[in-house]
Design brief:
globular, 271 residues, mainly alpha
Length: 271
């Protein structure tokens, strides 16, 4: 079998299949977005980019994605730590639930948030009586982003914690180091690559979230209208050039994030 796979014909076939797969599913759609954004000329592209509603949608998306990422980095690191370092009843079940946002349709996630925190729910009614509105406002968007990106930091930190040599911690405690000193000098540097790469993936995913957000956001320009919903609205209005122009901004940010993730992973491997 190995002899057959090493044959030049098989090698050429595998490479051609992978290259064709990459071109059809990745390169052509990306080129199509860039082509459509400039199809009516540079002037139209610039007008689409500088449109106040478009810019407000992009800036709001960036702000809320950063907030959700910071929440995920903090909570995800703690959850990953607990799942690796402690043994308790139901641990396997909780560990499997971490991947639920990956398996669950995002629209279902948005519906769950709507039913749990909406004005007709108990939590939503209590929050509204206190003057704090959740659904159809920015907090609901952040919650939706946190939900769909929840597994990224956890799954990035867990392998690092599993591979960590406990003898360094024990030696530090033996020498009289405090818990804070051990965390700052030993644990945090070891977990940092996972926290950074997982956080970047969560941020990139939050930028493009649509299914969960569209159900819980009020979609008011400048207040609750995010970039993905704006793109959908432009497509529905038959303004594909405007949709493609805003998409380029998100694509460029995603490419930059992926490049940063690769750099962080390469530095981690060198260490």
């Amino acid at each position: 079998m190995n002899t057959i796979l090493r044959h030049k014909g098989w090698t050429w076939g595998f490479r051609s299949t992978i290259l064709l797969y990459f071109i059809l599913l990745v390169m052509l759609p990306l080129l199509g977005v860039y082509y459509n954004s400039f199809s009516l000329g540079w002037h139209t592209f610039v007008e689409s980019i500088i449109d106040p509603i478009a810019w407000k949608a992009v800036l709001l998306t960036l702000k809320l994605a950063i907030i959700s990422t910071l929440i995920n980095v903090a909570i995800g690191t703690m959850v990953g730590w607990v799942l690796i370092r402690y043994e308790f009843w139901g641990k396997s079940f909780l560990n499997s639930l971490v991947d639920l946002p990956f398996a669950l349709p995002t629209a279902v996630g948005g519906l769950m948030i709507l039913l749990l925190l909406g004005p007709n729910s108990m939590i939503g009614a209590v929050a509204e009586s206190m003057g704090f509105e959740i659904v159809f406002h920015q907090p609901a968007i952040v919650i939706a982003m946190v939900f769909v990106t929840f597994p990224f930091v956890i799954r990035a930190v867990q392998p690092l914690l599993e591979e960590m040599d406990r003898s360094e911690e024990e030696a530090a405690y033996t020498m009289g180091a405090s818990n804070t000193r051990v965390f700052r000098s030993i644990l945090l540097p070891a977990m940092a690559p996972g926290m950074i790469s997982g956080g970047m993936l969560a941020f990139s995913r939050a930028l493009a979230e649509f299914g969960a957000v569209v159900l819980v956001a009020g979609n008011i320009p400048g207040k609750t209208l995010i970039a993905s919903v704006f793109i959908y609205g432009e497509v529905e209005s038959d303004n594909t050039v405007g949709a493609a122009a805003v998409s380029i901004i998100l694509l460029t940010l995603s490419f930059a994030i992926l490049w940063c993730i690769n750099m962080v992973q390469m530095r981690g491997r060198r260490r």
